[in-house]
Design goal:
With 136 residues, the protein is of the alpha+beta class. The protein has 6 helices and 5 strands.
Length: 136
């Protein structure tokens, strides 16, 4: 695919904040692309409601959601499901205390390879609030 075609094609896609009206479509896409059971609707809801520390975006083509991404700010201990103090004492290097999580980035299969996922990751990373030491 030529760079010129890709650039003109990317202009057809519209990126915007995730809203409550997008949640059902995003959940269906999440189930289709990543199998049932991995979905965390609370993550989508928190992002759509603007809960502090959560961000979410959708990408649309002709007013139809074809991809989405959600992230949040959390703690390193959240990854390991143990208290931070335990993690700190068991690690040679002190782990990152505040981390930006990219919970999910998902694009319909027929839109893969167009840079949508990369654009969502870049945008979510820039939108995550506050100071954090790393992204996972």
């Amino acid at each position: 695919m030529s760079g010129e075609w890709r650039e003109s094609h990317m202009r057809e896609y519209k990126y915007q904040e995730l809203s409550r009206s997008d949640i059902a479509v995003c959940t269906d896409l999440w189930v289709t692309r990543m199998a049932d059971g991995y979905q965390k609707n609370v993550t989508l809801t928190n992002a759509a409601d603007g809960v502090s520390g959560y961000v979410g975006q959708v990408v649309e083509l002709s007013s139809e959601v074809v991809g989405f991404g959600v992230g949040h700010i959390g703690t390193f201990a959240e990854v390991l499901s143990v208290p931070y103090i335990t993690v700190q004492s068991d690690c040679t290097l002190r782990p990152l205390e505040i981390v930006g999580f990219l919970d999910v980035v998902c694009v319909e299969s027929e839109h893969e390879g167009n840079g949508l996922g990369t654009a969502l990751v870049d945008s979510l990373t820039a939108d995550l609030p506050g100071d954090f030491a790393g992204i996972t």
